[in-house]
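Q: I'm writing up a methods section and want to include an example of the input and output format. Could you take the sequence below and give the corresponding predicted structure tokens, formatted cleanly so I can copy it straight into the document?
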Amino acid sequence: MEPEFGANETVVTEFILLGLVETPGLRPVVFVLFLLAYLVTVGGNLSILAAILVEPKLHTPMYFFLGNLSVLDVGCISVTVPSMLSRLLSHKQIVPYGACLTQLFFFHQLAGVDCFLLTAMAYDRFLAICRPLTYSTRMSQTVQRILVAVSWVCAFTNALTHTVAISTLNFCGPNVINHFYCDLPQLFQLSCSSIQLNELLLFGLGILMAGAPMILIVTSYIHVAAAVLRIRSAEGRKKAFSTCGSHLTVVGIFYGTGVFNYMRLGSVEASDKDKGIGILNTVISPMLNPLIYSLRNPDVQGALRRVLTGKRALG
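A: Here is the clean output for your methods example:
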């Protein structure tokens, strides 16, 4: 790549994404695997969304949030994987500076909404199990829409702040990113200017975007666990824990990979580990979500069967 030269410095106008593998012989294998993963993820999440739309039993707040989560999962994988697949096909690893920042913005926008939606789902379980008498008024359709709208606004503010902050950095030297998509830690490593403010922003906004929701989720589930343990019926306890178990599994994968990825700044040697965490975050997690939510849920399974066979729900 030929960098542009200003009066006194070299300005990077594009980055080179090394991708997942540097061995040419392995690229067709990676392409097929990730194309299949993409198709399975999009198909699985759209099937869940269709099941929620066609099944009257699933017209509840929990499944309203799950439907939104399915749309986000399709968005998250679509921000990273198709561009990686096109680079594997074209054998071109170059990504323009603007395209890199655009990808970063949309990735953080969608991941941010994910954080808040998972929190809204925990709050929904808390109200359903601990405050059943006021549940319908506290989790009305208006409240559901407000929670989703606020999630999008907060995530937009976070993503825009990071994108604007990184656009103020100078990139004048190396332009090789050892990853398959553009993200903050990798761009920080390439900056010629001080990243102290950017790291501070990542830490501060990280506490607001991930720390606060995590505290709310844990608090909600402590109350839920206490309430469930007071249920005398074994069947009632099992049903309550099954819906909560699916959600907690998704929360664990999402937050576990996120914390590992962003709270380990400054580690240049960890690039190959970053790729593994990136795959978990952007591919495996969205692909597993439909499976996790439908595996132990007979209502979702029944609705999926009707969607796939074209049969309508009775009554």
